[in-house]
Amino acid sequence: MELTTIVLAVAAIAGLYMAWNIGANDVANAMGTSVGSGALTLRRAIIVAAIFEFGGAMLVGGTVTKTIRKGIVDVGAFGDDPMVVAIGMTCCLLAAALWLNIATFAGWPVSTTHSIVGAVVGFGLVAGGIDAVNWSVMAKIVGSWVVSPLMGGVIGYSSFVFIKRRILNVDRPLLALRGWGPIMVFPIFSILALSVLFKGLKPLKLDLALGPALGIAVATGLLASFISVPLLRRFTQIASKDKDERIYRAERVFLVLQVLTACFVAFAHGSNDVANAVGPMAAVFGATSGELGSEVAVPHRILLIGAIGIVVGLATYGYKIMATVGKKITELTPSRGFAAEFGAATTIVLASKLGLPVSTTHTLVGAVIGVGFARGIGAINTRVVSGIVASWFITVPFTAILAAVLFAIGRIWLP
Amino acid sequence: MRIPLANLLARNPLPKVGDLMTEVVRTSERVQDLVNMLAKGDQAGVERIAKEISVMEGRADDAKNVARSKMPVRLLMPVDRRDVLKLISQIDAIADCAEDVGVLLTIRPLTVSEEMKPFLNLFVERVLETIREAAKLIDMIDDLVESGFAGPPAERVLEQAAILNRAEHEADKIQDRCAKVLFKEEDKMAPAAVFMWTKVLNKIGDMANHAENVGDQFRLFVAG
């Protein structure tokens, strides 16, 4: 068999495996709260997640993919042989997948994103030396890892403080929801629409510049708000004398809003995390077809492979994790879940647009902690937080070294 | 499985306090029996119940230790850990005082004058009432956590804390009456008996004082 064929096959398998892993392990973050609160059945959650993950991956996944493929290391610095990139990126996929397996087995809260970024850096260092790594891009990426949980936290905190003050703790929460509900629906839809429309619809040749995209996004948000007015009116009609009953009803309404934000998170997750599988794969395919370093956009069939991998992971194993997460996070009531997910999704979509590969899990954890700071959660286990901080410092060096070692071995077959 | 989100949310560490309060209320209620025995002049009965209270206080101590040990160190909680610990020790102090009342009554057998009997009974009743009002606060913890320590549940907590304050005040007033009755009869009594009575009345009164502190602790939860 030819070397190219072997490399392509290994890259495709490793890439699919990564995508499967992302679908199996990480999608539960998006839908877990909705399953836990009973807003969605497990089956429905999987279907909804599949749709939005797929949409996010296909529509907005390209930008981050490009960063992982070409932004972190300068593929031009490896000489003329495209096989260096092909073998190297394949090794990156293998290293990240191996690390994720170890972490999953041990239950460490590591990030898929950090794993792949670390691997690519390790490969870059061995293949092209220190100068091959684009350190300014790396600095931005690493910075985003700290900023994204913080930003998710700040938005989660503010959202929940707002909900608490304006809705849950007023005399008539249902009436308040009738007024504020449409206003809360607006940002979800407009941010979602903006992320899709603003350079998101390249394959359909429908991508827009910021100006018109912004206009249509605002219009979409307004439309959704208007549609939500009669719906909310129907949901909030039950007039109850009992204060507790009214709060309970208000939480029921939040179930609906929470499903909306869960879809938003799934979309954001697809848009950011598909790159972890597809980025290196795109580099391998690009290199073997002689498009090394060229400005060709990420081929959509490769994004499609990643998107399908995520959906398959979701369907084959993700449901199991989702059931576990759902059972464990029942404390996150719909209003809290809404606040946390809104904070996380907004942050992730923004990062995806900037081409920054952030960790969706860590961002969501940050957002949940933000809600906790607003005294919205019984208690938060800070052990998880320290685990996450530790994984910042362990994952990248580990996958970097592993990818470097694998590449040093793989290099033997280079002509 | 690599599911940090599922491990992030810990169970609310406060509900264990409910078990402690149940034990404490049960222990305190025995003080009523103790005083009844005293009024009957049944010293053997007093000693028996004092011993029972002591055993029950031990059980309350166990519940206290469980409550304390079940409060994990690595938790970010919506209330200050120290405030929770203070709450636990205030609840526990109620049972400690109940035990002390039993001990005091066994050190030197006391007799209750006819004039004192109704006041003493009323006093213990009022003290127990105060403790029950404090227990109602403990039952509100779940709602309080649920609402993020604000809104209607928080208002209810403040209302209940006010009720608790009034109950303690009532108990205080009866305590003063008891003291007045006691010193009206001081000439007929041995000085040691007067001394012991003062101590007993104070200990019973302290039970209500600690119950009141529970309310103040809740005020801190809501305010902080």
Outline the fold blueprint.
The complex is a heterodimer of chains A (415) and B (224).
Chain A: H1 3-36, H2 42-71, H3 82-106, H4 112-128, H5 135-168, H6 173-197, H7 210-235, H8 243-288, H9 300-328, H10 334-353, H11 360-373, E1 379-381, H12 382-410
Chain B: H1 4-8, E1 9-10, H2 16-40, H3 43-69, E2 75-76, H4 81-107, H5 116-139, H6 141-146, H7 151-184, H8 191-223
Helix pairs in contact in B: 2-3, 2-4, 2-5, 3-4, 4-8, 5-7, 5-8, 7-8
Shape assignment of chain B: elongated
Low-pLDDT residue spans of chain B? none
Helix and strand pattern of chain A: HHHHHHHHHHHEH
Q: State Rg of chain A.
A: 22 Å
Helix content of chain A: over 70%
Largest sheet of chain A: none
What is the domain total for the residues of chain B?
1
- Give the terminus-to-terminus CA distance of chain B: 37 Å
What is the name of the CATH architecture of chain B? Up-down Bundle
Query: Low-confidence parts of chain A, pLDDT < 50 over ≥5 residues?
Result: none
Calculate the mean pLDDT score of chain B and round it. 91
- How many domain regions of chain A? 1
Describe the model:
The complex is a heterodimer of chains A (415) and B (224). Chain A has one domain. The longest helix of chain A is centred in the middle third of the chain and has 46 residues, at 243-288. Helices cover 79% and strands 1% of the residues of chain A. Chain A is an all-alpha fold. Chain B has 224 residues and is mostly helical. Chain B has helices at residues 4-8, 16-40, 43-69, 81-107, 116-139, 141-146, 151-184, 191-223; strands spanning 9-10, 75-76. The model of chain B has no long low-confidence stretch (mean pLDDT 91). Chain A binds chain B through residues 25, 28-29, 32, 100, 103-104, 107-110, 160, 164-165, 168-170, 243-244, 247, 321, 324-325, 328-329, 331-333, 361, 364-365, 368-369, 372-388, and chain B through 1-14, 72, 74-78, 143, 145-152, 154. β1 (379-381) of chain A pairs antiparallel with β2 of chain B.
